[in-house]
Amino acid sequence: MTGNMWGWHDANGFTRLINVSGTMTSLGGSVTGPAAQKAAADAMGHFVKMHELQEHAGRVISRLTRAEAGCVTASASAGISLCVAGCMTGLDPSRAEALPADPGPRDIVVAQAGHLCHYGAPIETAVGLTGGRLRVIGQSTLCADHQLEGALNDSVAAALYVVSHHVVHYGQIPFARFVEIAHRAGVPVIVDAASEYDLTGFIEQGADLAIYSGHKFLSGPTSGIIAGRRDLVRAAYLQNIGIGRGMKVGKESIMGLVAAMEDWMSRDAATIRAAERAALDEWQAAVADLPGVTARIVPDPTNNPLDRLQIEIDPREAGANAAAFAAALGRQDPAIIVRDHEVELGYFQLDPCNLLPGQQSLVAEALRNVLGAGTDQAGADPRNGAIRAYLEWACG
Ligand SMILES: *Cc1c(COP(=O)(O)O)cnc(C)c1O
């Protein structure tokens, strides 16, 4: 264990925590590697023509995604707004400046009901910020081809497809079919793939614009990536004269992200995977003999090359339910923040992809201590917890 693992937290009075939940905005997004940290720090010392910087990033995005063009924005959520706006205005600056008050005649974005997710904010808001309107097709668990076909008329600027563990996983139109139907009607497809490792597949299958988060698995600074057709990327970038201004990305984030993308392209995926597997094995062994606890290794639901440890709790034998244990782990020092968005189903998960050196065995120890001891129900309300944290925030 590194001696000063908590030096930064302690010096500032911040809660010590270990992130085994995945990439969470509420936990600071990502931890960047040394190359991205240095690139961001170097950029802070210079003035630069931002359009040149964005062209530089665009070339790296093209290599990463095999898209024609790309640019960087503040977040994937910002990317959704800019792409939608770009599809509405094209490369017309007066129309870009008129948003959101006057979205013009092509102001509709079509999306499947099962794709309307909440990633910390409703995706509808990212669309609505442009002045555009959503035309929702299908119901939560079923959407058929005719519903997409029937929704595509002259007022439609784009069709939005969302890939995420947050969306409904059955009964939706498959991506390739969605693209085929939209393109037949001359409508561009925007794919929100914020959290997906597949950086080339959606473009390859015909996405006109693909959006990725810079600070999720890529481990860049807080940022978003837009990749796709050159005309549409340029139209999305133009929105910086309008609604995009409040979504401005700085030179430090762009250069940090470029370094993170280069790191990603040269990473040793097999070694990373093996280290993640070793963590899952250690945690699984740590809880193997605890009553009412079953731990199994499960694959990622959207087929990212990532496994997690799912800890299933039988409350009669374990002494508390999964939600209570997840909350109790969060009260340890360091706090162990687990993946609890499906906790009502009787389990939580441990995600190994953001572990820092020395943390693996601290997690194993906390699991044994907490899961072996029973606990009370305090804080066991993850559905409302995120909002409560905002309402309790007292601004210093
Ligand atoms: C995380 C996420 C977003 C938002 O990404 P940010 O870069 O944090 O804005 C949008 N869509 C999906 C599907 C996500 O998983």
TrEMBL record:
GO molecular function: L-seryl-tRNA(Sec) selenium transferase activity; transaminase activity
Record has Secreted as a keyword: no
Keyword Transferase part of the UniProt annotation: yes
N6-(pyridoxal phosphate)lysine PTM positions: K216
Keyword line: Aminotransferase, Pyridoxal phosphate, Transferase
A Pfam family: SelA
Cofactor field: pyridoxal 5'-phosphate
Family membership: Belongs to the SelA family.
PANTHER family (UniProt xref): L-SERYL-TRNA(SEC) SELENIUM TRANSFERASE
Protein name per Swiss-Prot or TrEMBL: Aminotransferase class V-fold PLP-dependent enzyme
Species, as recorded: Paracoccus alkanivorans
